[in-house]
Design a protein that fits this description.
The chain is α/β, with parallel strands linked by helices. The chain folds into four domains: 6-201, Rossmann fold; 218-320, 2-Layer Sandwich (Beta-Lactamase); 331-437, Signal transduction histidine kinase, dimerisation/phosphotransfer (DHp) domain (Helix Hairpins, Orthogonal Bundle); 440-600, Histidine kinase-like ATPase, C-terminal domain (Heat Shock Protein 90, 2-Layer Sandwich), CATH 3.30.565. 46% of the residues lie in helices and 22% in strands. The protein has 15 helices and 21 strands. The protein has a seven-stranded mixed beta sheet with strand order 5-4-6-7-3-8-9. The chain has a five-stranded antiparallel beta sheet with strand order 11-10-14-13-12, sandwiched between helices. A hairpin with a 2-residue loop joins strand 8 (180-185) and strand 9. Helix 1 (29-45) packs across helix 2, helix 13 (452-469) runs parallel beside helix 14 (489-505) and helix 14 packs antiparallel against helix 15 (564-574). The radius of gyration is 59 Å and the shape is rod-shaped. The two termini are 84 Å apart.
């Protein structure tokens, strides 16, 4: 946005922008007073720092007196450092390699001083009365350079030239190097515009028009912000994008138009760019339209610098990408849905395949269970039929004594009854084993506290005679006497009896059986090891399954219905414990039972 024009105080000139460079052709000191007094008065009243360098025919003291008469309170301005009125001295004309380069630096330093003191810019006037003809060429070059410098700074300058010291050639050079010239003709001041300046002004106007046409015809919003981030220019496109008039945006920052969280995020990003004085491109940011709905803008900007290389702001464009972002989001959602559907399909196929496999596994288990059941029924029938057949035979023999010629002795009758009794007992045992499984699998909560060592010792003693009958080395080691568990005494006896009985039954003549009970952490551990026929690797995984019979070494010829170890496992699980076996075929087996002690029973 353009800076507002400054009041020159000179009626014929009116207001002029910063960077205006005038020349004044005079003949008398009154001519100087007539122009320069109102010129500096306007500068003081508009918060500008003023520098008046005097020489003949108007000395500094005379200039102060003339300005004081018009202003009245000149001393106040002098005290606060707003104006310096001095006579020309050599320090205003220290030459360097480029002629008058130090004078140019002098004015730049004065402008810097003006800013430091809080003034808006520098208003100055010098006097060239001291200029000698042999210096004119260098000074003309200096004026040309000064003109380009003043245009880029917050400066207004009037350079007085005495007509008595200027010829036609010099006057042409002076007018060429200034935008305007003031000259008095027939008692009236006239303003002459430099042809060069006219061309420059025309080029500037054309450039500004091109810029205006470009910014107003583009679909993007063109903007400028100052170093504090406030909008100093906004193209009319802002209304189409965000609903605001240009006047409503000027003086605001981009962050004033954003939701709070977005403003904080983008503010941090922009601060980093400002510190590094870097451009930025395609920055996506969310803005709130004047009517409240959200708009996504894509912003690009480049830093602007003054002639000293100091950052003075940013210039850039904003583009509405709301529809594009919405389209991208919808496309992304569609892709997510598609991927989800594909994943769902793959998952469904995988589940179907797993279900198919599971059905196959279940079917196989059912088939195996059915086969076991059929085999068990056949075996159970055989086991039940055997004692019944023997019993039937004995009964037939006894009942036939009344009709046959011969008769049984007392001992023969007694032996027959004893055999029948044993067969009935065997039959009862088989039925009890089958009945056990009808109780379900859920572990029970037992209340009775039982010393496991007592049960192991009693059962081992009970079966010792069977072991000795096979000349088996029979060892019992109760390493911890007071191992207490909660359980069912009869079930635990059956567990221990089955394990020891199996060890004896499948043990070798003159072999070895070792029964060990000890505490293992928070559990009671019972080990029953034998040096018998062992269990093959093929049979080992199935040894605790119901109705399962192993190979010849542990086949039905040894007796039983294939329920003993299954019952052992069931009893152990009812007590919250675990049973496992270590075995090597033809070398023996080691059954290990772990039962939780009374203080650590699993529920």
């Amino acid at each position: 946005m353009k800076e507002k024009n400054r009041k020159t105080g000179i009626d014929i000139i009116g207001d002029m922008p910063w960077g205006t460079h005038l020349c004044l052709f005079y003949q008398t000191k009154e001519d100087l007073v007539d122009i320069l007094v109102p010129y500096f008065k306007a500068g003081l009243e508009n918060n500008e720092f003023c520098m008046w360098v005097c020489w003949n025919p108007l000395q500094a003291e005379e200039a102060r007196t003339a300005l004081s008469k018009t202003l009245g309170n000149l001393d106040n301005y002098i005290k606060k450092g707003q104006i310096e009125i001095v006579n020309y001295s050599k320090r205003h004309k220290v030459r360097g390699d480029s002629g008058f380069s130090n004078m140019k630096q002098f004015w730049i330093e004065k402008e810097k001083l003006a800013f430091e003191r809080g003034f808006e810019g520098l208003r100055l006037a010098g006097n060239t009365y001291w200029l000698e003809r042999n210096e004119w060429k260098d000074f003309a070059k200096y004026e040309e350079e000064v003109d380009s410098i003043i245009k880029g700074h917050k400066m207004l300058a009037i350079c007085p030239y005495s007509l008595d010291k200027c010829g036609a050639s010099e006057i042409i050079d002076v007018i060429k190097n200034h935008q305007f010239a003031l000259i008095k003709r027939e008692g009236k001041w006239e303003l002459i515009e430099s042809s060069e300046h006219k061309k420059a002004e025309k080029a500037l106007r054309e450039s500004e028009q091109r810029f205006k046409d470009l910014t107003e015809s583009t679909t993007d919003w063109v903007w400028e912000v100052d170093k504090d981030g406030m909008y100093t220019y906004a193209s009319p496109k802002v209304k189409e994008l965000l609903g605001y008039e240009v006047s409503e945006v000027l003086g605001k920052t981009p962050f004033d138009l954003m939701p709070k969280e977005e403003a904080e995020k983008i503010g941090k990003f922009f601060t980093k760019k400002v510190i590094k004085r870097e451009p930025f491109y395609r920055l996506e940011n969310i803005n709130r339209h004047k009517d409240g709905h959200l708009v996504v803008l894509e912003t690009s900007g480049i830093p602007l610098f003054n002639e000293k290389g100091q950052l003075k702001g940013y210039r850039g464009i904003d583009r509405d990408i709301t529809d594009r972002k919405r389209s991208e989001e919808e496309k992304m959602k569609a892709q997510v849905i598609m991927l989800a559907e594909q994943k769902k399909k793959v998952l469904a196929e995988k589940m179907a395949e797993e279900l198919k496999k599971e059905v196959a596994r279940k079917t196989q288990k059912i088939r195996e269970a059915h086969e076991l059941r059929e085999r068990f029924i056949a075996d159970a029938s055989h086991e039940l039929r055997t004692p019944l057949t023997v019993l039937q035979t004995k009964m037939d023999l006894l009942s036939s004594t009344g009709t046959s010629k011969g008769s049984f002795s007392y001992q023969e009758v007694k032996d027959c009854l004893e055999s029948g009794k044993n067969q009935i007992k065997n039959l009862t045992t088989i039925l009890e084993e089958l009945t056990l499984f009808s109780r379900g699998k859920k572990p029970k909560e037992f209340r009775e506290k039982i010393k496991l060592g007592t049960i192991v010792r009693e059962v081992a003693k009970e079966l010792r005679a069977l072991a000795e009958a096979k000349n088996i080395n029979y060892k019992i080691k109760i390493l911890d006497q007071d191992l207490v568990i909660k359980g069912d005494k009869e079930m635990l006896k059956k567990l221990v009896r089955n394990l020891i009985f199996n060890a004896i039954k499948y043990g070798r003549e003159k072999g070895k059986i070792e029964i060990i009970l000890k505490k293992q952490k928070r559990e009671a551990e019972l080990r029953v090891a034998d040096g018998g026929v062992g269990i093959s690797k093929k049979d080992l995984p199935h040894i605790f399954e119901r109705f399962y019979r192993t190979g010849k070494g542990r086949s039905r010829e040894k007796g039983g219905a294939g329920l003993g170890l299954a019952i052992c496992k069931w009893i152990v699980e009812q007590h919250g414990g675990e049973i496992k076996v270590e075995s090597e075929y033809k070398k023996g087996s080691n059954f290990i039972v772990s039962l939780p002690l009374e203080s650590g029973i699993k529920k």
